[in-house]
Amino acid sequence: MNVVSTVVGYPYIGANREWKRTVEPYWRKEATVQQFEEPIVAITGAVREGACERGKWFNT
Questions:
Q1: How are the residues of the chain apportioned to helix, strand and coil, as percentages rounded to the nearest 5?
Q2: Dihedral sign from CA coordinates of 1, 10, 36, 49
Q3: Long-range contact pairs involving 56-59 (C-beta distance under 8 Å, separation at least 24)
Q4: Can you tell me the distance from the alpha carbon of 19 to that of 16, in angstroms, rounded to the nearest whole number?
Q5: Predicted model pTM
Q6: pLDDT for 27-55, tens place per residue?
Q7: Residue range(s) defining the domain that contains residue 23
Q8: What total number of domains does the chain contain?
Q9: What HEC string does the chain produce?
C-alpha cells in the first residue's frame, strides 16, 4: 500500500499562532537562529504542557 500525504498550510500551534509568526521571519531571513530558537522552545514547551494536562501527549 502506498500512502501519500500533503500539508496544505501551516498548523496553528500556540493560542495566537505563535509558531507561524516565529517561523515566517526566519524563513525570510529576517531573524537569526537565536531569535528563532528561543520562542520555538517556549512554544513547544507550552503546547506540550497543555497537551499533558489534557492527557493527549505521548512520548515515544
A1: 50, 0, 50
A2: negative
A3: none
A4: 9
A5: 0.58
A6: 999 999 999 899 888 888 877 777 677 66
A7: 18-50
A8: 1
A9: CCCCCCCCCCCCCCCCCHHHHHHHHHHCCCCCHHHHHHHHHHHHHHHHHHHHHCCCCCCC
